């Protein structure tokens, strides 16, 4: 009889411990996890974004295959971006493409990988500028790059290392190791 009472007591202890364990897990509060600030606030596929200046004229448009916007840093990452810069809000003057780009909260666009800048005005002397990276301030349109640059026009080709300039004034200055090749106009 003592063995039977011992087994009964042991069974009561095991059931009591199991009940306590199960209820203790249920009574604990759920742990709240803060959202990961490094994940994008929003993403988009095949996005077109047009920006206007203070006078209400189109300033630029960014087309992108994919974008991610991060709220903590204010950065927007673009994949295969194409930037269109307008003259006087109506005429498209520049088309700039790259493999990737990052737009920061200060409206500075850093374009990387196979950067191509096309001047779309027929009277322009510069037709194409090629480089590996380009930093462009979208507010004042100043740009620069430390990389190798190739500038092609209708009758010339210049190359050098490093470039700075301004899109609104249509000015581009090569900084170092400048070489040029010019052809005479044929009338």
Automatic annotation (TrEMBL):
Q: Does the keyword Cell inner membrane apply?
A: yes
One Pfam entry name: LptC
Q: Which domain of life is it from?
A: Bacteria
Gene3D superfamilies associated with the record: Lipopolysaccharide (LPS) transport protein A like domain
Where does the record place it?
Cell inner membrane
**According to Swiss-Prot or TrEMBL, what is its membrane topology?**
Single-pass membrane protein
What are the UniProt keywords, alphabetically? Answer: Cell inner membrane, Cell membrane, Membrane, Transmembrane, Transmembrane helix
Instruction: Just give the chief location class.
Output: membrane
InterPro entries hit by this protein: LipoPS_assembly_LptC-rel, LPS_export_LptC, LptC
The record's annotation in PANTHER family points to: LIPOPOLYSACCHARIDE EXPORT SYSTEM PROTEIN LPTC
Q: How does it assemble?
A: Component of the lipopolysaccharide transport and assembly complex. Interacts with LptA and the LptBFG transporter complex.
Instruction: Report the function annotation for this chain.
Output: Involved in the assembly of lipopolysaccharide (LPS). Required for the translocation of LPS from the inner membrane to the outer membrane. Facilitates the transfer of LPS from the inner membrane to the periplasmic protein LptA. Could be a docking site for LptA. Required for the translocation of lipopolysaccharide (LPS) from the inner membrane to the outer membrane.
Q: Hey, which family's this protein in?
A: Belongs to the LptC family.
| Protein name, UniProt field | Lipopolysaccharide export system protein LptC
Task: Give the source species.
Answer: Photobacterium atrarenae
């Amino acid at each position: 009889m003592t063995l039977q009472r011992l087994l009964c007591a042991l069974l009561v202890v095991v059931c009591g411990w199991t009940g306590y364990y199960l209820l203790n897990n249920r009574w604990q509060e759920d742990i709240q996890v803060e959202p990961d600030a490094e994940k994008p606030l929003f993403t988009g596929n095949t996005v077109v974004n047009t920006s206007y200046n203070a006078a209400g004229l189109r300033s630029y448009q960014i087309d992108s295959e994919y974008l991610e916007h991060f709220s903590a840093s204010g950065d927007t990452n673009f994949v295969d971006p194409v930037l269109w810069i307008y003259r006087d809000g109506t005429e498209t003057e520049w088309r700039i493409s790259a493999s990737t780009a990052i737009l920061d909260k200060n409206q500075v666009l850093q374009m990387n990988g196979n950067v191509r800048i096309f001047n779309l005005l027929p009277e322009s002397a510069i037709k194409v500028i090629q480089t590996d990276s380009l930093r462009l301030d979208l507010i004042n349109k100043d740009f620069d790059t430390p990389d190798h640059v190739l500038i092609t026009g209708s009758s010339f080709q210049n190359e050098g290392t490093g470039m700075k300039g301004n899109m609104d004034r249509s000015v581009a200055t090569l900084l170092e190791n400048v070489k040029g090749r010019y052809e005479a106009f044929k009338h």
